[in-house]
Amino acid sequence: MRVHHRLQWRRDPDGTPYRARRSFPAGPANATVLLSGPGTVSVLDGTGRDDVLLDRLTATLVASGAQVLRCDMPVRDPGKPASADDERRRAERLGRLLAGNRHVMTGPLSLIGFSLGGQALLRLLETGEPPRADRVVLIGTVVEADAFLTSRVPLIELVYGSLDLVGYLADENDDKLPPAVFEPAMYADWSARHLIGTHSPAVRVHVLDGLGHTLHPCGPGPARDPLPALTSLVGAGL
Fold this sequence. Notes:
Elements: E1 4-11, E2 17-24, E3 31-36, H1 49-63, E4 66-71, H2 84-100, E5 109-114, H3 116-126, E6 135-139, E7 147-149, E8 155-161, E9 166-168, E10 180-182, H4 184-193, E11 195-197, E12 202-208, H5 227-235
Parallel strand pairs: 3-4, 3-5, 5-6, 6-8, 7-11, 8-12
Antiparallel strand pairs: 1-2, 2-4, 9-10
């Protein structure tokens, strides 16, 4: 199926320009998906491996009849950990993206976020925007503190690669000590318990074998394509 795109230029309140894009099928869309990429992706026409996965996911969702909303994201310093300001700026753009397309939204609404993009979605849902999302899928998003969601969200899917290891300093006062490293088998359930809200969302955890952060193949053995598992999980809500 051919993917149609509509691109619009918009501005942040401080005047910073960015692009918003709606990808849609030839016929009427049967669902709406807001797609929020990881911190490595800042523009709609990037060429990195995360960009490739987002473009493939967009094409697959449109082929299933959904329309997909994406926008350029504020550029961040890749050499530094993501900050609360990074999350806030991304969440604000996502909120404006939803508001600007409210007149064309149809069918169930799904929100999909990768890593920092997932953190931005959680920040948005804490504010109650959108008032309801039918499905939220967070990929590689570790939730370290309680996220109290005021939006009505019946179901949240947490998705991790089995080789997505997370390290923490064993002693913040001694950076010479080796970090404590956790596998998804430990931090996934921990993240799930931090997702709470006014409407008590159901949370399910999925760990995909042979994949790393943002679902890139790694480790021994043949490379595994994450798209079939991801699209079947997302597509169940369309």
